Amino acid sequence: MAVGNAAVQRRRQHAVSVAKERREATFRAKRLRREGVSLDMDVESDGAMVIEEEPSVLDAQMGYAVEELKLAVSFKGNDEVQKKVNALRELRRLLSRSEFPFVEISLKRGVIPLLGECLKYGSEDEQLLEAAWCLTNIAAGKPEETKALLPTLPLLIAHLEKSSLSVAEQCAWALGNVAAEGEELKDLLISQGALRPLGRMMLSDNGSTVRTAAWALSNLLKGQDPEAATKLLNIDGVVDAILRHLKKSDIELATEVAWVVVHLSMGSDVATSVLLMQTNLVQVLVDRLAVSSSLQSLIPLLRSLGNLMAGDAYTTNVVLVPGHEITDSIIRSLSKCLKSEHRFLKKEAAWVLSNIAAGSVAHKQLICKSEAVSLLLQLLTAAPFDIKKEVAYVLGNLCVAPADGSGRPSLLLDHLVAFVRNGCLRGFIALVRSPDLEAARLGLHFIELVLSGMPNGEGPKLVDEADGIEAIERFQFHENDDLRMMSNMLVDCYFGETYGLDE
Length: 503
What we know:
Largest sheet: none
Structural class: mainly alpha
Number of helices: 31
Strand content: under 5%
């Protein structure tokens, strides 16, 4: 009866795996800023503009643009600012076109020191904005191109607090692209002090500014960095700002802020405790989930709730009290997601439900009384494998009560019987036959529940009729010690110690 234990142990592991999944790349890619485009376009999804010029002509255009910037930077006179702005604008126009390697050419021509010169304090806003825009699009390029920004990072960070809102926002965009490159650059940005000014930008009431800052922060917090998460929450007003923005009608804004919550709750128990115990964040997320319909907004909401519920069972019991509207609402919303045509939503919803189902017996009973169970049983039969696996964790958790003083969970017989009567056994046996060892172990644990727990000793017969014996036997000589021992134990205990020897 280790199904419940296995599910509880995997909750935190699952919570920190988001960076490895395709959906993370889908929504958190670097972002190129085009002419008149706000922060809503990923590099991976841009539409390349049709070009008719020959590559040699385009190469020459970039070379000319960099040379013009050099001349403008060195020029001293009454219209020196306008000369620099004009040169920067032409450079930015070329760097906004991703269908030709303008970034590579500009770097070879020595553009970074020139842009750094244009970012100096005391410069006009228009000049600063154009320079930061150029750096933003360079940082949206290949890894080595992103790393070329290293000399400019201190200036970009300083402008977050010391310049106008428009300049600060563009610098935050550039830093978000740098942070998206990986751990090394994220750590460097944090060490250079980027976290605090980006966090303070969240206090703004300007929607565009907050969206950009939230996106940059989610890239900066991505991964397991409890210290960074705690530092962000310790900035005065940040927690209240997160809650305030999540309640706004601006869907894009709420989505970006929800991603910040995802990463705050991913690797820091301290941050999770603050968000759960000192705020009504779960209620805000549940309310938002109930009225959201787009895939782009639902995924971070589900992920946030799943991470917050991935602590110990005590946390779930305190926040989601059975009988309270918030608990009924979240189960209704998760059931809605289970019916979605998007596999990501089904999988995420099942994962959140598995965390809730690992709570008290009252939580398990609440789920069993909802439409979620019938949906889960259907998915176990017909869904893609990864969803079946998540669903199996939910159903397995629903069949066992939390561990007692002996450390061993007890069987919830009525739940087990209801699930088996509705045909779930074959779904678990199919998991045993899969090449995924974690899924196979889950299937074997459930089969053990059936063999030991079904009334009137009918478990062995049910397993035999569902062709379960053959599935169990495939692990009798397996290299995995745990699965081999479990397989032999089940065969010996329930089908005779000499079972199969004659063959």
